Structure formats: C-alpha cells, structure tokens
TrEMBL record:
<feature type="binding site">
    <location>
        <position position="270"/>
    </location>
    <ligand>
        <name>Mg(2+) 2</name>
    </ligand>
</feature>
<dbReference type="Pfam" id="PF00316">
    <property type="entry name" value="FBPase"/>
</dbReference>
<keyword id="KW-0460">Magnesium</keyword>
<feature type="binding site">
    <location>
        <position position="106"/>
    </location>
    <ligand>
        <name>Mg(2+) 2</name>
    </ligand>
</feature>
<feature type="binding site">
    <location>
        <position position="264"/>
    </location>
    <ligand>
        <name>substrate</name>
    </ligand>
</feature>
<feature type="binding site">
    <location>
        <position position="103"/>
    </location>
    <ligand>
        <name>Mg(2+) 1</name>
    </ligand>
</feature>
<feature type="domain" description="Fructose-1-6-bisphosphatase class I N-terminal">
    <location>
        <begin position="14"/>
        <end position="183"/>
    </location>
</feature>
<keyword id="KW-0479">Metal-binding</keyword>
<feature type="binding site">
    <location>
        <position position="84"/>
    </location>
    <ligand>
        <name>Mg(2+) 1</name>
    </ligand>
</feature>
<dbReference type="Pfam" id="PF18913">
    <property type="entry name" value="FBPase_C"/>
</dbReference>
<feature type="domain" description="Fructose-1-6-bisphosphatase class 1 C-terminal">
    <location>
        <begin position="188"/>
        <end position="321"/>
    </location>
</feature>
<dbReference type="InterPro" id="IPR028343">
    <property type="entry name" value="FBPtase"/>
</dbReference>
<keyword id="KW-0119">Carbohydrate metabolism</keyword>
<protein>
    <recommendedName>
        <fullName>Fructose-1,6-bisphosphatase class 1</fullName>
        <ecNumber>3.1.3.11</ecNumber>
    </recommendedName>
</protein>
<feature type="binding site">
    <location>
        <position position="105"/>
    </location>
    <ligand>
        <name>Mg(2+) 1</name>
    </ligand>
</feature>
<feature type="binding site">
    <location>
        <begin position="106"/>
        <end position="109"/>
    </location>
    <ligand>
        <name>substrate</name>
    </ligand>
</feature>
<dbReference type="InterPro" id="IPR033391">
    <property type="entry name" value="FBPase_N"/>
</dbReference>
C-alpha cells in the first residue's frame, strides 16, 4: 500500500500543498488518539459555552478546534483559518499561500454515545492582495478549492481527500503512524435505493421535498417502482462516507422550523468540501437552485441547502422542484 506523500506526488500535487496536508493530518492523528481515550481523557460532555451557531460546545469541539488552529497557525503555510467554532477568521502568516476552513468535530451529538464523528477541511489559495486579518479572503466559491477532505474517527480512522484528481480513501496505520492509500478514484454508483434525511423535520420541508420523500417511501408500489432504505447517522461525515462507499442520496433540505435559519449545514466547512469529494467521485452536489460549488459566499458561517450523492437520484430529486 502506498504512503500518502508519494500518492500525492503521483497526482502532481505541489510540495507546499503536500506540506500543508501533512500538517492537517498531524492534528487529526492527535484528535484520533484523544477520541479513542474518551472517558479516560476526561473529554466527554459539554462546556458551558455556546459557539456563534448558537450550539452548546462539547469539550471535544473545543479541544479539536484548538489543536487544529494552533498547528495551522504555527505552520507558516496558512494565511488565515476559519472554523465552525470561531466567530470570525483568524490571521496566520502574512506570507502563507493558503487559507483553511474546517469543522474540527463533525457529529458532535455522537461524541458522548461513542458513535461516528469526524473532521472536515477545505483549502483555498490565499488571495495575495488581502491582509491576513481580512475575512473576505474566504469569500471564494467551492469550485476554487485546491483540496478538501474529511477524517472519520470510526472503527478505523480514515482519510478521504481530493486535490482535484479524483477522490481517494486512506486508512491510518497505527503501526507506522501514517495514512496509507487503500482506494484510488472512488466512484459513487449513479443509481441507488438508499436515502439519508432527518425524517423528524418532514412537516417543516417545502412541498417538493415532501413529495419526493413520499414517493421513496411508497417503494415498489409507488411511481419509483422500487423499494428504498433509509439511514441517518447524524454526522455528515458518516452519511457522506456511506454514500461515497456504496451510493445513496444525502439531503438536508430547506425547512421552516426556524424562520431565520432555513438551512442547517454550513457552506464553507461542510457543504463545499463534501461537494468537491462527491463530484470528484462522479456524484452530484446541489441545492434545489443549482450547483453548491458555484455559490459565491457572502459570509464565513453561511448556511445552505444540500442535496448530494448518486447522480441519477439527485437529478430525480431535483425534478420535483421544476
Ligand atoms: P456539527 O456536529 O459539526 O455541528 O454538525 C452536525 C450536522 C451534520 O454533521 C449532520 O448531518 C447534522 O448536523 C445532523 O443534524 P440533526 O441534528 O438534524 O440530525
Ligand atoms: Mn456544531
Ligand atoms: Mn458539522
Ligand atoms: Mn462541528
């Protein structure tokens, strides 16, 4: 099995980007260890603080964020970072060539039940004409990402990453302490009989999504003429990993549960990086209005509707909006 750095060189990834990726992965190895310690490390449970999203922070949200932030800002490769757990962007090295957005701990509600969690990251080139403390640097669409990935702290610790040359799977090999390439150019099957959505929000969805899910649930007796199964991990990393592995459609649609917040997932450090991975694996990543990676962002914590996964199924879902 190939080690990470040679695999990246084979894809002609520039050396400075490889160095940044290695820095990010150093942080994930530390988080992976802390996660596995659970009760033993005293890191379960909540803090008394809320993040800018209005969510109570778990201890592990904060620890993972600090680990990532410190290692990235000290690296010299990064001009600024933005994170789910930071109110605004944080300046790094003025000469850093890259900016990094991240969700340090995705699936926070799974921490205390010893279930799937992960880290999501997205890398863009740093604009040369903006100061390191200017958050406008992050207002770049997803199609300009130079790298995106997530690390899944599951039964094995896996890295799923793209630099625009396909989506590849790696596994953390604890015997030598590095990530090994286990699957190159993963492909999402175009058709599926599996969907992922939080069904408890059904009454808040828009009519097209209600109609689409209604037809999936009718199964072979309905217009789709086949049965569908449902899965919901409550961690986007887990649900997207299943979609990349065996296909499926994952959606967090618009809802009117909270009038000020029609969408749940965040564009910069959830939707964009996952869209890059899904598209590089031959899937589609959309809102009901268009391609996620074409959205021109207006703020760091912007939220967005998400409909992604198996190409034909995403197209069928979107046809309900026409
Ligand atoms: P985070 O833990 O980083 O705040 O993200 C949680 C997100 C996402 O991972 C998941 O798909 C979704 O929230 C789960 O939403 P529900 O609580 O509606 O299940
Ligand atoms: Mn959160
Ligand atoms: Mn998240
Ligand atoms: Mn998070």
């Amino acid at each position: 099995m190939q080690r990470l750095a040679p695999a990246l060189r084979q894809d002609n990834v520039p050396l400075d980007l490889i160095s940044l990726i290695k820095t990010i992965l150093a942080a994930t190895k530390e988080i992976s260890f802390r996660v596995s310690q659970a009760h033993l490390g005293g890191l379960l449970g909540s803090t008394l603080d809320e993040n800018i999203q209005g969510e109570v922070q778990k201890k592990l949200d904060v620890v993972a964020n600090e680990l990532f932030k410190d290692i990235l800002l000290e690296s010299g490769f990064v001009k600024a970072i933005s994170s789910e757990e930071e109110d605004t962007s944080v300046a790094g090295d003025p000469n850093g060539k890259f900016i990094v957005s991240f969700d340090p701990l995705d699936g926070s509600s799974n921490i205390d039940i010893n279930s799937l969690i992960g880290t999501i990251f997205s890398i863009h080139q740093a604009p040369e004409d903006m100061a390191a403390d200017n958050p406008d640097m992050f207002k770049q669409p997803g199609h300009k990402q130079v790298c995106a990935g997530y690390v899944l702290y599951g039964p094995s610790t896996m890295l799923v990453m793209t630099t625009g040359k396909g989506t590849h799977f790696y596994v953390l090999d604890r015997t030598h302490g590095g990530y090994l390439l286990v699957e190159r150019n993963v492909q999402v099957p175009q058709d599926t009989q599996e969907f992922a959505i939080n069904m408890s929000n059904q009454r808040f969805w828009q009519q097209p999504m209600k109609n689409y899910i209604h037809d999936l649930v009718l199964g072979e007796k309905g217009p789709r003429g086949k049965n569908f199964n449902m899965r919901w991990i409550a961690a986007m990393v887990g649900d997207i990993h299943r979609v990349l592995t065996r296909g499926g459609i994952f959606t967090y649609p618009a809802d009117n549960k909270n009038q000020e917040k029609p969408y749940k997932l965040r564009l910069m450090y959830e939707a964009n990086p996952m869209s890059f991975l899904i598209e590089q694996a031959g899937g589609l990543a959309m809102t009901s209005q268009g391609r996620i990676m074409d959205i021109e962002p207006d703020s760091i914590h912007q939220r967005v509707e998400v409909i992604m996964g198996s190409k034909n199924e995403v197209e069928t879902c979107l046809s309900y909006y026409q």
